[in-house]
Design brief:
Layout lengths: L1 E4 L5 H12 L3 H10 L8 E7 L2 E13 L7 E9 L8 H15 L4 E5 L11 E2 L5 E2 L12 E5 L10 E4 L13
Parallel strand pairs: 4-5, 7-9
Antiparallel strand pairs: 1-2, 2-3, 3-4, 3-9, 5-8, 6-8
Helix pairs in contact: 1-2
């Protein structure tokens, strides 16, 4: 398997991965909107290939933490792996390489709204308990789905606030877990 930065010429393959993985157009439409949204830049878009076929994709878009303009943050959304390639470590490798690249670029925090049984395996912890509120309220029974990972020591505990996402992601429907 090879993971590479997704180029503009990979857009059709990226969107196909999301449609196949989720069985709908919603996530692929979100990816397309985020990639063209100036408020989401810089984005990190990585494509996983197996024998030249796109089998996975991850997108990280720019975010900010209210009251802490000196922090650099990203939101992981979405992550997709085609059904026949799931449970083979592709999603985890996309996360690992993405976090590594974001860390090298100076990003301090990465947030995700996702499965509490999956993302903690990759270093994410419940964000609200650490002082970081989601752009929209998360139901108490799902609060552990809003998670954060610090890419720089000393950030957690020193900062808190409401996370502000890109315009394309700034809709309550995306935050109902």
């Amino acid at each position: 398997m090879k993971i590479k930065p997704a180029a503009a010429t990979d857009l059709d393959a990226v969107l196909c991965v999301h449609r196949d993985a989720f069985g709908s157009q919603e996530e692929s439409s979100l990816v397309e909107a985020l990639l063209s949204d100036a408020s989401a830049q810089p984005c990190l878009s990585l494509l996983a290939l197996r024998q030249a076929r796109a089998v996975g994709h991850i997108l990280f878009s720019r975010a900010t933490v209210g009251g802490a303009p000196e922090l650099s943050a990203s939101i992981l959304a979405p992550l997709a792996v085609v059904p026949e390639a799931q449970k083979q470590g592709i999603g985890g490798e996309l996360i690992r390489q993405g976090l590594q690249l974001l860390s090298k670029s100076g990003v301090d925090l990465v947030f995700v709204l996702g499965y509490p049984a999956y993302y903690p395996r990759h270093g994410f912890r419940p964000a609200e308990a650490l002082g970081f509120k989601a752009p929209y309220p998360i139901a108490p029974e799902n609060s552990d789905a809003w998670m954060v990972q610090a890419l720089r020591p000393g950030v957690i505990g020193a900062y808190s606030g409401v996370v502000v996402c890109a315009d394309a992601l700034d809709h309550p429907a995306y935050w109902a877990e």
